[in-house]
Amino acid sequence: METFKYKELQHLLKSQIIKGVYKEGDLLPSENVLSSEHDMTRTTVRQALQKMEDDGYIIKRKGKGSIVNLKKKRLGLLSFKGFSEVISHTDDKVNNQILEGPVLQNWSYDFFYPLSEAELEADCIFLHRLRFINQSPIMLEYTYIPNTDLPKFTETKLVSDSLFATLALNYDIEIMSMDQEVRAIKADAGLAAYLKTGLGEPILHAYRKYGTSRKDLFVYSSLFFNTESYAIGSYFQ
Amino acid sequence: METFKYKELQHLLKSQIIKGVYKEGDLLPSENVLSSEHDMTRTTVRQALQKMEDDGYIIKRKGKGSIVNLKKKRLGLLSFKGFSEVISHTDDKVNNQILEGPVLQNWSYDFFYPLSEAELEADCIFLHRLRFINQSPIMLEYTYIPNTDLPKFTETKLVSDSLFATLALNYDIEIMSMDQEVRAIKADAGLAAYLKTGLGEPILHAYRKYGTSRKDLFVYSSLFFNTESYAIGSYFQ
DNA sequence: AATCCCAACTTGTATATACAGGTTGGGATT
DNA sequence: AATCCCAACCTGTATATACAAGTTGGGATT
User: Fold this and answer.
1) Residue A96's pLDDT is what?
2) Tens digits of residue pLDDT in A125-167
3) Cα nearest neighbour of B82 on chain A
4) Domain-by-domain residue ranges, chain B?
5) Helix (H) / strand (E) containing A185
6) CB of A5 under 7 A from strand C?
7) Cβ–Cβ contacts within 10 Å for residue A13, how many?
8) 23-82 on B, CB < 7 Å from strand C
9) What is the architecture, at CATH level 2, of domain B83-225?
């Protein structure tokens, strides 16, 4: 296992941010403080912080410092917007309920994205979740990950109930890109029950394929949204 | 105007790549050659090349060099995917029918995005279009642009029937970002008629706000999709 | 009390240097 | 002629140092 000083600092700071040692809007210790505390040059500290900024964990401001930033980069991938209060990211409470998994199983024969041979050879880590906003079920999610070099994934608890936080913290895997196709469909009996809506009501459906910092590792999801009260936001740049 | 050595090298190399001095797959001069030729440290050269890689112009390979890369980084703001043939972008024929506009009018009082004072003061260029794939109506689009410093926009014909091509060619305005919120709704009588589907059928609706290379100029759209036969694709990076 | 200003912070740019480790073409060996 | 191997290249990591330039809080001035 290759080990570099800047990678170690990067990993330490990431985990501290995810664990809440530094919160949204906080300033990280200055580059000079970090370099003396961790016995490395400021150049090396800057290398770590540059990667942190690339990954969307901090925003650097000249003369000010490195500001912890959590919502940005994630906001593009999945965010909800209330009907009336589009702007105010107020006190919406988000809960996750894991219905099944993470568990190892075989790939379905008619999987929604074409899979590589290496992916087909590996087992499939399956995860079935229901996401709530203010106690209302909004999103039903089926996630599939090829079990390639992800030791003990199904045996350990998810970090902060989040798949992406787990991949980032335990395996140093960042989500780098996302490809999706979206449709509007009618709720069948199962969807209507999960998402607490009527049979035949319009449901937003998305197939997603996430690219990661680990070449050849992709995460697949099939998502169903009840958009009666919340729209799905996304931001490209 | 602030000027930095690494920015100058970055700009020089980018323009050389665009002009074809270095072609797809070529290797740039090595970091040592660049540093001695341009009288700067290898550290400074590396800073320029790092930005080049971030912008998708090159791919760096340890032990090899910096490989010129052109095709990457293009993001699809709007694409359709056939149901069965997800991959093959075959010979689907796309047509546009302009139902109304471009015409100057007032902003609606309950416009879907909050507008700045400058935008409200300007008139609104309005455009109402219907897009077909293989003669089937798939997308209904309402577009709104603040008429700020866009001379003769409503008087001249669109370039290639495309709004973005017109902005790029006639006004040097590039689309840089896109923010959207998406919902699934039921088709009302009007939508059902335009999109040739039944009353109450699920329709995908999106509000979009495009950012441009001209600061403070945004383009707004309200879009309705019939996703019965085609899904809406998008790619983030 | 309100204002101004600067010292002490912060990050940004740049130089000079060293060694580690991946890639490759050509000469020595087989 | 085919193989092997290494020297000479390449980028990656790391140290030590200097000055430029943005930000901010508190003391001196008004």
Assistant:
1) 81
2) 999 999 887 788 888 999 999 988 888 888 888 887 788 888 8
3) A181
4) 2-68, 83-225
5) strand A175-186
6) no
7) 24
8) 39-44, 47, 61-64
9) 3-Layer(aba) Sandwich (3.40)
